[in-house]
């Protein structure tokens, strides 16, 4: 075992390094600071919590929510990449908004290309600007394990201790796509360890992460005067959605509800790049069948419940070590997931089920058992943790906003607007109970009243009585796009105009 993957060796080395590098004043105050744990699931929709009243069994997450604050309107901002998780994690680890991260990602791509301009400046962000390095500057020993998927930084350059680093997703197999074709299709089963994926290495990846987290907690318990920042990133419940058979058996397929907004085919799937060319979309057959959606949701739920059990063991270790009460825990996911909503399977869209993620915050200064409906971005966690660590949030470098006043009960005001964007093909704006979706390649606008229509089924855009509301939301969307330097739609238009002129000439 090398040093990178050995928590014991890495932790001791990190403690020595931290003592030498952190200013004396910071070290002296370290004992007064709370521990902070950030737990990130992958592809978990906001609706998949037992306490949301749905079908999924999540007793440990429900208990965590009961001991802290649960947000019902927490959103990812969108993505410049088909791998939405990549963009979301870039935002977390830089504190920058989606298109600013996208610009850096594009420059990195050019820098790494074989034919790049050799005079081009190095576009990689300085490691000191990473979330983890900022936390380290406040006297925290920093730890990471799990899914990284952030091309901007290398984990061993921005964290003191690094456990097992995982790729964007477990390795998939061809048998896992366009299935099940019918009730007799058993070509791929979640508990079949021969298919690799989450089973690669002999132990389920969620269980490996659990064990490494416990190992670090045990090490940290011996250094109680030194606070830690722990970043745990589960690959679950991303596909391939593999869990032990006992978990799958908890969800008989015939009992799984098909989403109310189920469609055999989404009418704009190709225009918004969610058709057969999208990998995520091929997880179920075309056209969608109710049975295929039931099976996919069954496997999704099983993997979430399995993750929940690993989380429970980690939290129990904190309690056993006497660290739970002085620890802030932030639980969320990088975004949501459709899994049959609207005939979609992935997260590459701007509906509530795919932009929205669970968000639970527990900590010493937080009144237990509150549920808030304030609008926040999940990446607002970054400046919130910085404030808890005693840091001044640097502006404009950190572009997200702390929601510490909300979790501490000093305010109930969240964001007035929530923006969503995917590539150049879809945009949305939420203001109050109203949401406008725009598909420039159709082109079409869609209007929903989320108070009366949470599942976004009743499009009001063609109703003349809402013309004023559409105008208001169009203006809000345009202003947000300008604020966020979102020029993707215009760049695509110019690109197409240039191609058209070249073809004509």
Automatic annotation (TrEMBL):
<keyword id="KW-0732">Signal</keyword>
<dbReference type="InterPro" id="IPR050738">
    <property type="entry name" value="Sulfatase"/>
</dbReference>
<dbReference type="InterPro" id="IPR000917">
    <property type="entry name" value="Sulfatase_N"/>
</dbReference>
<dbReference type="Pfam" id="PF00884">
    <property type="entry name" value="Sulfatase"/>
</dbReference>
<dbReference type="InterPro" id="IPR017850">
    <property type="entry name" value="Alkaline_phosphatase_core_sf"/>
</dbReference>
<dbReference type="GO" id="GO:0004065">
    <property type="term" value="F:arylsulfatase activity"/>
</dbReference>
<protein>
    <submittedName>
        <fullName>Arylsulfatase</fullName>
        <ecNumber>3.1.6.1</ecNumber>
    </submittedName>
</protein>
<dbReference type="GO" id="GO:0046872">
    <property type="term" value="F:metal ion binding"/>
</dbReference>
<keyword id="KW-0479">Metal-binding</keyword>
<feature type="signal peptide">
    <location>
        <begin position="1"/>
        <end position="30"/>
    </location>
</feature>
<keyword id="KW-0106">Calcium</keyword>
<comment type="similarity">
    <text>Belongs to the sulfatase family.</text>
</comment>
<feature type="coiled-coil region">
    <location>
        <begin position="467"/>
        <end position="504"/>
    </location>
</feature>
<dbReference type="InterPro" id="IPR024607">
    <property type="entry name" value="Sulfatase_CS"/>
</dbReference>
<keyword id="KW-0175">Coiled coil</keyword>
<feature type="domain" description="Sulfatase N-terminal">
    <location>
        <begin position="34"/>
        <end position="390"/>
    </location>
</feature>
<keyword id="KW-0378">Hydrolase</keyword>
